[in-house]
Amino acid sequence: MNNDITREGLWRNNVALVQLLGLCPLLAVTSTAINGIGLGLATLITLVLSNTLVSLIRDFVRNEVRLPVFVLIIASVVTMIELLMRAFFYDLYLVLGIFIPLIVTNCAIIGRAEGFASKHGVGASALDGFMMGLGFLMVLALLGAMREIIGFGTLFAHAELMFGESAKALTIVFNDDYPGFLLAILPPGAFFGLAALIVGKNLIDARPKKKALAIHTLADTA
Amino acid sequence: MAMSSRQILISGLFLGIFAVIGTAFVAVTEDSTREKIAENERRVLLRNLHALLPPEKLDNDIANDTQAIPASVLLGTESESLVYRARFLGEPVAVIFNTIAPSGYSGRIHLLVGIYFDGSLAGVRAVKHAETPGLGDAIELQKSDWMRGFDSRSLNHPQSGQWKVKRDGGVFDQFTGATVTPRAVVEAVKNTLLYYQKNAKTLYD
């Protein structure tokens, strides 16, 4: 079961590439890898906490008010995370801006609460939250990296926002004279980038099926 | 299936209890992070202020040496704002205004405008804006030196009629493909200088 949860969260039912949820923050903050990773981590923590809490109260919550209660839990968790970011990661908070409180509106979170955590035990729910969050984080990081490399010619620029002053060394500048490719940084670039990732995933998924089909056809003609 | 009013009441109470618990958690977190957050906001404010006035020019606690000034069309503000005063050995050195350029391409541009006692500009910095990346965002110092073009300027330099972008007959460069942004900023800076001219006498009180 845990194996399934992991596979579902990371690949088969990936929040961003399959469920296509949480696209607003996905497209808006992935202009650099660090921004994507920052928001991805905040979303991951939210998912783990909200799934855990929803699962804990699933036997006590009255059916008629369960959705408002879930939203309440998610909103409280996100507000606490925002306060903690303002206290300990202030510069990153300034960069991510309104997208931190907007995590509340990420349909993936209420989706997992209602679709999984309300029906499964705490351990499984926590793992589901973690894997869904990790799957989302991976896409955010990958898309952010792609857009940053093509758009700015750097990777992990402003790493110090998340990892402290010493992380400035992590920044890779591929070409000092890179003129920049504006389209990658603007919203259309985000859409194109996400589309490329979805196409990539679908191509990877199709390969074993094509092989199986080929073997089938060979077997039929035998 | 109809619910009895008793059931509805219980559900409502239930939701209310969750609301109280949730709020309590948020309140506790807010309380324990309040000081750290205030410290962070101060740090960023000082960083912005010092970008305009190098620390060796002043010796007072500029972040707290403030005067509340009422809303003003010249400053683009719709409510009270703070002006920061810099002093050295008790003598006035410069003031820094929170100015808003209302007509940026994507809305308001928040600026810090520093003006020396003699009316010349210490500098201008954009602290918050939503201008287009690659076009209007040249008002950010990381992207271009354009903002430094305001250093040392005043209402006599250039003359009032020339406080515009080149396209409108003034002396300030506009960015290729983005005229609205520099136009808004130039106007806001000029208006701030005008405000200073009118109010210089009381600003250091």
SSE layout and pairings?
The complex is a heterodimer of chains A (222) and B (205).
Chain A: H1 2-12, H2 23-29, H3 33-56, H4 66-88, H5 90-96, H6 107-117, H7 122-151, E1 154-155, H8 160-163, E2 172-173, H9 182-185, H10 187-221
Antiparallel strand pairs in A: 1-2
Chain B: H1 5-52, E1 66-69, E2 81-88, E3 91-104, E4 107-116, E5 121-128, H2 180-203
**What is the helical fraction of chain A, as a range of percent?**
over 70%
Q: Describe the global form of chain B.
A: extended
What pattern of helices and strands is seen along the backbone of chain A? HHHHHHHEHEHH
Distance between the termini of chain B: 71 Å
Distance between the termini of chain A: 38 Å
Structural class label of chain B: alpha+beta
Q: Count up the helices of chain A.
A: 10
The percent range for strand residues of chain A is under 5%
Number of strands of chain B: 5
Radius of gyration from the alpha-carbon trace of chain A, in angstroms: 20 Å
**Could you report the average pLDDT of chain B, rounded to the nearest whole number?**
90
Low-confidence segments of chain A, ≥5 residues, pLDDT <50?
A: none
The largest interface is: A-B, 25 and 26 residues
Q: Count of helical segments of chain B?
A: 2
**Cα gyration radius of chain B (Å):** 23 Å
> Could you describe the largest sheet of chain B, including whether it forms a barrel?
5 strands, antiparallel
**Count of domains of chain B:** 2
